[in-house]
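pasting for ref
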Amino acid sequence: SSFFPASPDSDQNLISLYHRRMIEEGVAPDDIEIAAVRNVYVSPTDQEAVDLLTPRLQWAGDMGEYLRRPVSVMANAPGGLRGYENYVRDPFIEKDLLEERGKEGMAAIGSPEKVTAAIKELESNHVSNFISYLDAGGLDFDQVSSSLRLFAEKVIPNFR
């Protein structure tokens, strides 16, 4: 299962609920697989990553609104699309959820130490699989390869 958080607290609440329910249903803790998805960008400094990724993550949020808002409207209209009612609370498009989540709520961006800490926090909260998006739209080859190199050399060695 993947969790797209509205905020770190609600993310952890969903993960904890899922983990607890799996154990209640008799699944062995070592057999529970939980995945988290994050945009990842590693740079020498936190500020460099934030400066580079902020407009790209804003674009992703704007695109999410452009694509999802009409579905939210249709789902919540009388006789609307069944199964899409919660799109109206989509963390990509709801301003209060965006503010609560913060710029980096769906990303692990920054120095190798900061990205490592973000992934370790997920790991300490039952996340067993980490899925990363390494190109956040519009990055050039050198930017992606630099980030990927730092990720491989400085972040990955901190995990088994």
